[in-house]
Amino acid sequence: MSDFRQLSDQVWASPQITLADVQAAAAMGFALVINNRPEGESPDQTPGEDIAAAVRAAGMDYCAIPIAPGGFTHEQVADMAKALGEAGGPVLAYCRSGTRSTLLWSLAQAAAGEDPDSIASAALQAGYDIAPIRGIVESLAAEARN
């Protein structure tokens, strides 16, 4: 069973999920599952198409915003913000460890003008450190407020 970690009232991050985790996510009331893991990153990962089919069969929505190790694009941040904004309820985002999902959530929150300290605190409470992108979070939040 995956380790679903709450980032906000509506968003959780998780390490790689399995088909059994999809059923747990449905039982917990998630409306959307976001896959932030590129296909083929590891031979033991459940393929995204299998997760997508199980998610949809369980009555949830699915989208993929794959993040390769090493960085994020403006488009990925915008796609994450859009997915979160259009979700019909709680969201579960996953990648290999949950870190990329958390960092992408952090960037989307900052782009919406959320407070960087609050973002960092929420991530830390979930067991994730946004230090590698803290400067970008601060810049995005400042841009959004201006």
From TrEMBL:
Coiled coil: none annotated. SUPFAM superfamilies: (Phosphotyrosine protein) phosphatases II. NCBIfam families: TIGR01244 family sulfur transferase. This is TIGR01244 family phosphatase. Residues 3-112 form the Beta-lactamase hydrolase-like protein phosphatase-like domain. GO terms for molecular function: hydrolase activity. It holds the Pfam family BLH_phosphatase.
